[in-house]
């Protein structure tokens, strides 16, 4: 008789475990608890609202001080320890910025006053790692950053992206 109950006991335990597994599987498939997909959707909606808010701020900002405040919010900060963040210029990354700083070009003003031939010579003299860099627009971009003409800078950068994808 005890063998009879122990045999059925194993089947009951197996049934309970199978039931827990099926419940877990059902929760994973149908996200009954508002699982990760619901959380991601909420986060996406929150970020979309934030983007719309920022776009509204940009479109309504007409004066230069609010444009400068928005620019600084997105990393357009000038003059840290006597050096500008030259990486704001399209085509200048950390290595080229370091190279330019070593050559005495540390501010947007200095970069805007440097002619393209001199910039190209600096790049050429420092090896093939800088062969793909095209400094043709760097003085113009740095001049626009110096003037804080963010709209013109955006238009110039957009045209550079268009030209690079076209070639």
Overall mean pLDDT: 79
* Structure annotation, total helices: 8
- Which series of helices and strands comes N to C? HHHHHHHH
Number of strands: 0
Cα shape: elongated
Counting structural domains, the number is: 3
Q: Could you characterize what this model shows?
A:
- With 167 residues, this protein is an all-alpha fold.
- The protein has three domains: 1-30; 34-60; 66-166, no CATH class.
- The chain is 69% helix and 0% strand.
- It has eight helices and no strands.
- The N and C termini lie far apart (86 Å).
Quick recap of the structure?
This protein is an all-alpha fold and 167 residues long. It has 3 domains: 1-30; 34-60; 66-166, no CATH class.
Defining key terms:
single chain; 167 residues; mainly alpha; 8 helices; elongated
Topology:
Blueprint: H1 2-30, H2 36-60, H3 64-73, H4 94-102, H5 108-112, H6 116-125, H7 138-147, H8 150-166
Helix pairs in contact: 7-8
């Amino acid at each position: 008789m005890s063998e009879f109950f122990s045999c059925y006991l194993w089947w009951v335990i197996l049934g309970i475990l199978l039931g827990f597994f099926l419940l877990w599987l059902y929760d994973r498939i149908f996200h009954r608890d508002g699982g990760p997909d619901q959380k991601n959707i909420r986060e996406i909606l929150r970020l979309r609202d934030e983007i719309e808010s920022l776009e509204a701020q940009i479109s309504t900002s007409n004066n230069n001080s609010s444009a400068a405040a928005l620019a600084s919010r997105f990393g357009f900060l000038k003059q840290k320890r006597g050096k500008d963040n030259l990486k704001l210029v399209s085509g200048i990354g950390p290595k080229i910025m370091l190279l330019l700083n070593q050559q005495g070009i540390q501010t947007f003003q200095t970069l805007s006053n440097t002619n393209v031939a001199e910039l190209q010579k600096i790049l050429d003299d420092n090896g093939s790692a800088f062969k793909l860099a095209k400094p043709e627009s760097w003085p113009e971009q740095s001049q626009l950053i110096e003037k804080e003409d963010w709209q013109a800078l955006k238009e110039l950068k957009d045209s550079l992206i268009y030209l690079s994808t076209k070639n």
